[in-house]
Structure formats: structure tokens, C-alpha cells
Amino acid sequence: MTPTQYPGLIPSHEHERLAALQPYQVLGTPGQEVFNDFVSIVAKVFDMPIALVSLVRADDVVFIGNEGLPEALVVNREDSMCSVAILSNELTEFRDIAAEPCALVNPFVAQQMQLGFYAGQALYAPNGMAVGSLCVMDHRPRQLTPSEGLLLKDLAQVAQELLRLQAALAAGFTVPDALPTRLDATVQQSLTRLATLAELNQWETADTAEAHQYAESRLDEARYLAQTLYRELQIVLAGVA
User: Dihedral of the CA atoms 3, 54, 165, 35 (nearest 10)?
Assistant: First the structure.
């Protein structure tokens, strides 16, 4: 990417960020199974058609987890709002893209894809450098509730640790003998329960106090599962330098 085209996308620490991204380059193949499974559940949890795990490289953005955008495998950095999400420690949210497009990226791409909403949370390397993002998108304007925003942040931490684990395994890291079964069971149980909660969301149509209370309870449970999965991944990754 030519820096003068969209200079706002290039952080002052870009050199250090790209160095932190290097260990993850082995994951640069679009649509990896573990991340595809993960974002498929994320999309259902938020009742949105699109969810992505991205790596933001020097000139482009690769979607290693892709639900809902099969035609977008690798895009130019200036064409993706994930390039913007890595610039902030906070949640990046564009509630009505048609009315208020992101000024830091090419607006025509979002128009062509008929995007109405974007929310993304940066994913970090162990040294604190942002290497990618977890995001959800919709074709209509939306706004995350505070509970949904917290859940997206928790799920981003899970995606972050999954990135570390997959990169470590690709580099030869061996998981201790006692942990694979425990980790697989925890991951599968958590993802299955998250998927079940997401399916239950499809039945929520009534705009009543009870329905809203149920939705909040579902989000609380989803956060608990995400936090549990995050802790399990951290235990496994404790042996990674």
C-alpha cells in the first residue's frame, strides 16, 4: 500500500507491528477450518450474516476466518475496515456505513458490498502490537448493546489466543500429553454451547421485558463460555515462549 493514499491507516509503530505479525504469517491462508468454525458461531451469536478473523499485513488484509464473505479472501488494506480496527484499543463501530462511511478507507468497497454496519476488535500479539481483528458486519444499520460490545471483546480474546496457538503449533510447539484431550473437550463444549445459545436467539421475536431479560442472560452465558475458553487456551500457551 502506498502510504500517501491513506496515511491514516499507517500507525506510527508500523515497523514494530509488522515485526510482531511475522510469527503469524504461517497462518496467511484464507479460510482456515478452526477459524471458519469459530466465526460461524460468532456470526450466529450476534445474529449477523458476516463475521471475520483477519490479519492486517503491510499491503493487504487476509481473512483466515470467514463467514458470509466467501468472495473476499484477501483484500487491499485500504479496502478493509479491519485496517481501522487495529488502530484502537477500543471497539471500532460504524453503525450506519451508508450515512456515515469510514473516512480512513475506500468507501466504494463497502457500498459495493452493501454493508450497513461494522464492529471490530483488534487482536494483539504478546508484545501488545495489533496484528488483526475479529469483526461482525451486517447489511443494515445496527448498534451493539453494551453487553454485546463486551461479548465481542471477550470473543476477540479467544480469537487472539487461537491465533497464538495455531502459530505455535505451526512452529513446532508440542502440547503436553495431558492437555490435548482437555483442551479439545473444553473447546468443543464451549463452542457447542455458544452455538446452542445462538440458535435460541433465532426464536426471540417478541419485544417484551421478558425477551430482553432472556437476551441479556444469553449474552451473559456466552461471555462466561468465552472467558472459560480463553483461560483454557492461556493454560496451554503458558509453555510458549
Answer: -160
Q: What is the dihedral of CA 184, 63, 152, 136, to 10 degrees?
A: -130
Largest CA distance in the chain: 54
Q: Is 64 helix (H, G, I), strand (E, B) or coil?
A: strand
How far is it, in rounded angstroms, from Cα 234 to Cα 241?
Answer: 12
d(CA 59, CA 2) in angstroms, rounded, equals 8
What does the alpha-carbon distance between residue 66 and residue 58 come to, in Å, rounded to a whole number?
Answer: 20
| Residue 116 per-residue DSSP state | -
pLDDT at 6: 77
Instruction: Report which secondary-structure segment, H or E, holds 166.
Output: helix 146-170
User: What amino acid occupies position 27?
Assistant: L
C-alpha 43: how far from chain center: 10
Count CB-CB contacts under 10 A for residue 64. 25
Cα angle: 216, vertex 221, 224; to 5 degrees: 125
Distance CA 198, CA 201 (A): 5
**pLDDT one-digit tens code per residue, 103-147:** 889 989 898 899 999 999 999 999 999 999 999 999 999 999 999
- The chain-wide mean pLDDT, for the chain, equals 87
Can you tell me whether residue 200 is helix, strand or coil? helix
Contacts of 86 (CB under 8 A, 6+ apart): 11, 17, 56, 122, 130, 131, 132, 133
